[in-house]
Amino acid sequence: MTTWNEFSTAAPRIAGIFTRRHAAANNLCLLATVRRDGSPRISPLEPRFFEDELWLIGMPGTTKFRDLERDPRFCLHTATVDTEVKEGDAKLFGSVRDVRDRALHGRFATALFEETGFDLRGQEFDHFYGVDLTGASSVEVSGDHLDITIWKPGAPEYVVEKR
């Protein structure tokens, strides 16, 4: 599996688009998970970058986190509001690992409070999901065509032109 730091080195174009779109949407993304019956679920989520990793953390007891507990596979999509995709678009594919490190949780909560004022300091996290990537793609409008960039672990990212 590939962490965010490894991914951003291996696929800088996609990582750049994801990071830019993530920030432009106030950190909002759409998370796809697998329901108990095998059907997909789409949920809003604000993934966070911390200590060179991407984390999926949120309100405890939600269905999206129960989905990930049962089946760790996901797709994370930047929130797209522009139907012409002028600013680009990106998707990350992978699975999560539940990191049970209280010291890390504490550092995260302190950083979150300092950055946003949202106070989770001293609280225990039900789940603290680190992201391991298994693939990614992005779309950019380039003149009269789309540039679709694709990445899989162990290979460089590559661009496919769609006219």
TrEMBL record:
GO function terms (MF aspect): coenzyme F420 binding; oxidoreductase activity, acting on the CH-CH group of donors
Domain Pyridoxamine 5'-phosphate oxidase N-terminal: 25-111
Domain of life: Bacteria
Keyword Oxidoreductase: yes
Pfam family, one: PNPOx_N
Native organism: Prauserella shujinwangii
Protein name as annotated: Pyridoxamine 5'-phosphate oxidase
Family annotation (Gene3D superfamilies): Electron Transport, Fmn-binding Protein, Chain A
Keywords: Oxidoreductase
Any one cellular-component term (Gene Ontology): cytosol
Keyword Translocase applies: no
InterPro entries, sorted: F420H2_bilvrd_red/Heme_oxyg (IPR052019), Pyridox_Oxase_N (IPR011576), Split_barrel_FMN-bd (IPR012349)
